[in-house]
Amino acid sequence: MTRPLPAxxxxxxxxPLDRFLRxxxxxxAAERRVLVDQAVLLLxxxxxNLRLKRAIHxxxxxxxxxxxxxxLDTLTDAAFHAELIGVFSDLRDLHTQYHLPDPYRxxxxxxxxxxxxxxxxxxxxxxxVISKLHPQLASGxxxxxxxxxxxxxxxxQRAIERNAERASGSNVDARVARGLESLALRPLxxxxxxxxxxxxxxxxxxxxxxxxxxxxxxxxxxxAQGASGAQDAVGTILSHHAIDAGAEAxxxxxxxxxxxxxxxxxxxxxxxxxxxxSTPRRGDxxxxxxxxxxxxxxxxxxxxxxxxLQQLPTTGLVIDIRANPGGNILxxxxxxQLLTANRIEPARFSLTPTRSTVALAMANPALRAWLTSLxxxxxxxxxFSQAFxxxxxxxxxxxxxxxxxxxxxxxxxxCYSAADIFAAGFQDNDLGPIIGTDGHTGAGGANVWTHDxxxxxxxxxxxxxxxxxxxxxxxxRVTRTGxxxxxxxxxxxxxxxxxxxxxxADITSHNEHLIAAAARHL
Length: 522
Known about the structure:
The protein has about 525 residues and is an alpha+beta fold. Helices cover about 30% and strands about 20% of the residues.
């Protein structure tokens, strides 16, 4: 006898995925050609990690794009977007992406809950639970805290592994972490919409019984709506930014679904939170949570961070940057200087020497420091230009008093971009130990520029893109300093000094055990 499907559960916000997909207007053939041709120009002329990615991942994105151009008329609209996304995702570089046009841009597909991993002990295999559940989905035994056993009939561990294979993380830790998060939350500008319109979830209730729940995908607009459609979570990309735009969009969606506005206080409470926490062995310590470095104003971010640090006890500070997608590099390196009286040595940045990067450096005064090196590298065949810092942390700190106590940093595999740079600077300048809930950070080692920003400086070389589509490219690669001088961040990330496996109480409560474990390293 066939078992009937459970009654569907769904958020009331947004639109059902199937209805959203019916609203998508296909691109014309000429618009597809523009996208492919501009992708070739971008990767061939500006992408700093092209040689590295060809070698480490055995990919040839330029040949794939040429083949795609030949096949344009044979593909459906969905198949075209899937192929173009695939070209970029196979680079395993979240800085270098194709962002789909309207109506995908600025929208997120969500189920209405989060799946997180925990370890019953520090040596055991992981288990997976619904850590947060929107109140509209709570039904019977389907509650926050239930353990997942299957996903659309596939054992949950295998379902996550399959999802991780499609994720763009630079290393295994990052791919698994992103595969886990994208089970229930997908930014549609950077990821393909789910194939299924609803998910059949097998879970173990608190009494041990196995049940199933059917949950519908909904398409949300977690940021403000403008005249031209849903807005990006990242907004205008500046020349000193380094961010995973998809993860920032997911962060906005999680905030809107699970953190009511009444709980968010302060001008930058979406980015920073500080509190005093009592720990068993260390007593009262400061706790600084940095959700993102996506600050439009470097000064405003550092003013807020400095004010928060002044309120915390000087007995020790636990800094937590888990799931931080990056953002403003100047804000990240300026904050490092607020944590020590010693002079911070910032990361170094270099470009790939091509005719396009030489033209860009000639047009943009902010890149003039690299121009002589680029000219010589084109002649000598060097792979990269000289490496120069992007910031002066002492100047950014502006005489603000540094935090005087000992420090410890918590990272995970979803720390990316400017958060990678922050963690590397923390380690390279010997500010304190790093405790990781994964074996590496996300390994995003570059300064990212958008196609729109490049067009501002080279309007004759790049064309406008259709439908508010865009590309992002890693323009300047990051190399580390101190004892690790010259080592790239891309694909390698930052390895913590010790690893802490999250327990069930950490993900269903407020990380008390994690914070206490980190405080023991102060």
